[in-house]
From TrEMBL, chains A, B:
Known cofactor(s): pyridoxal 5'-phosphate
Protein name according to UniProt: Branched-chain-amino-acid aminotransferase
One matching Pfam family: Aminotran_4
EC number of the protein: 2.6.1.42
Superkingdom, natural source: Eukaryota
Encoding gene per record: BAT2
Length: 370, 370
């Protein structure tokens, strides 16, 4: 009998030594954490164990644990927001749960009922409620993580795992307003490939990406732009999905992002932007496309004045405006019609912010922890 | 001032509670470990710290540690052998040190002087000398590992790392003699890609490979064979390099393995087999090739009776004979002229065994711990 994940079994041990809270202006992304953490152990034999919220603590791992050798690890990034009624809200957590299960399945780690983990995250948020910062752009970053904990150097299916969630209070990605970034198009390294795992949120996709980012930084760029294939297809920006806005000769406009062909992370922000723009942009003026397009097309259309704006999209920054792309020794300049971003960039950021902070109800996208 | 790795600073704390040793027939690969472990901490600020051999112990890691989220992890596989004079020998450890540094560099972890780590491994082997089993095929498996230990969810260059070595007494991969394996050629998943990290011994390359191995196992195969591209180039076998032996129309023979094009792990056993066969096989009868070849060529030449043998090569098994390959619903049968393997397979296994166990001196390939 392998037990399913069951939120009703939750056990809570509260800390007796609460941490001091940092003021909003001292918050650094992912550096400080709340008083508690949520953990659920899994074994192949017994299934999911008792969910526990207990004081934030170190993990004790045997040096042979498979997570340290074979990258049996995956994670999610989510945020919790404080609304004007002091409710704590999460944004489309069901999408994160679906993706987390797909990630787990891809590397032979256990899957679980996503709604059960969402219920546990709600309880975790209520216990550490006081760490959710107040103020526009402030939130509590949630990091659901799963690691294989089998203690053996044999490469095989882990028979033990730990699912845990930690939380870090964070400020707006850019102090106030946007800070548009310069990108370097990377042509000597690839992030993902067909038949690989680039569409799953696995640890394995991250460490190999740091070196190209360092190389870009050395040459004065803030991020790198991932290309694929001889054609130079645009795939992602650093660790975000990439969106480009083009103007057509007939005056219509196109919002374009790479399709989910197995090499693209299935971003929740990406999906939200596609849905909101498809619903809200006037259909006689706009086309929203998931299609392949190349750095060559971007360069060519920029030269013709048809590149209007570009941005990265992800949980951390929501949207991150792009101001230029270095490519083969040339700079492709991206207009910033709204000052620090393009107009659509600013618009989608605001649409999403309102839903995240509960100022607007949109379908079931915002969930109140209770 | 960033300190280099310095073996002369070694500090040794010996255990007061030595473990009981298992009899040879109870040894399971990577399941039990020696009394001690070797550790060296690194920080960006101070460089490499004091190397320490201390009782085998759990690692205490903050749940935000980057190794658990972004796969900042790499390892090596080496073996130590007891020779007939009771010396403890390692095999071509300098190659492992070179590869470990290349792996570290690729994911922005610190590099080090490989000879210093080899000196430390020698001392570790002398401390745990009694765990090196006696007998042909028995050895002490060494697992040098490096993990990023920065406690932060920001994706960037780790500013802290831990290099550690643990050791597990192991028996022969196959009880006695060879056990030839059946492979399933995998065409729906891809292990590595040009511009990726398939040529580095990173944790990131391993977890994604387990699912295809499980799929192969479900259909009754022992391992999977990794192909690349529409052409179906043969790249690796499970977690080993792949060798094929073909007979030509003129009676000459060819030993072929995939070239180091960035998608192939730079195996130490692979390199040793290439060097020994190039030196020892009669040049008028044999060609040793590093070249691309496809599953189609293997199928075609098997049909013509020109496929003579095939094997995987790696530290764990040294060589692993292949008896058949499932491909598009058909079975490509591989002859086993020497009973459980091909003749060259048995020959190279014996050549390498003699050097590993110190029965034969060959260049500097075997190093006595002292």
């Amino acid at each position: 009998m392998s037990a399913p994940l069951d939120a009703s079994k939750l056990v809570i041990h509260k800390t007796t030594t609460p941490k001091e809270k940092l003021p909003n202006d001292k918050l650094v992304f992912g550096k400080t954490f709340t008083d508690h953490m949520l953990e659920i152990e899994w074994t192949a034999q017994a299934g999911w164990g008792t969910p526990t919220i207990s004081p934030y603590h170190k993990l004790s791992l045997d040096p042979s644990t498979v997570v340290l050798h074979y990258a049996f690890e995956l994670f999610e990034g989510m945020k919790a927001y404080r609304d004007t009624d002091n409710n704590i809200r999460t944004f489309r957590g069901d999408k994160n749960m679906d993706r987390m299960n797909k990630s787990a399945d891809r590397i032979a780690l256990p899957t679980f009922d996503g709604e059960e983990l969402m219920k546990l995250i709600d309880q975790f948020l209520l216990v550490d409620e006081s760490f959710v910062p107040q103020g526009a752009g402030y939130s509590l970053y949630l990091r659901p993580t799963m690691i294989g904990t089998t203690e053996s150097l044999g490469v095989g299916t882990p028979d033990k795992a730990l699912l845990y969630v930690i939380a870090s209070p964070v400020g707006p990605y850019y102090g106030t307003g946007f800070k548009p970034v310069s990108l370097e198009a990377t042509d000597y390294a690839v992030r993902a490939w067909p038949g690989g795992v680039g569409n799953r949120k696995l640890g394995a996709n991250y460490a190999p990406c740091v070196r190209p980012q360092l190389e870009a930084a050395k040459r004065g760029y803030q991020q790198n732009l991932w290309l694929f294939g001889e054609e130079g297809y645009i795939t992602e920006v650093g660790t975000m999905n990439a969106f480009f806005v083009f103007k057509n000769a007939d005056g219509t406009k196109e919002l374009a992002t790479a399709p989910l062909d197995g090499t693209i992370l299935e971003g929740v922000t990406r999906d939200s932007i596609l849905e909101l723009t498809r619903e809200r942009l006037p259909k006689n003026e706009w086309v929203v496309s998931e299609r392949k397009f190349t750095i060559g097309e971007v360069e060519e259309r920029a030269a013709k004045g048809e590149l209007i704006e570009a941005f990265g999209a992800g949980t951390a920054a929501v949207v991150s405006p792009i101001k230029s792309i270095g490519w083969k020794g040339k700079e492709i300049e991206v207009p910033l019609a709204a000052g620090d971003s393009g107009e659509l960039t600013a618009q989608v950021a605001e649409w999403i912010r309102k839903i995240q902070y509960g100022e607007e109800q949109y379908k079931n996208w915002s969930r109140v922890a209770q």
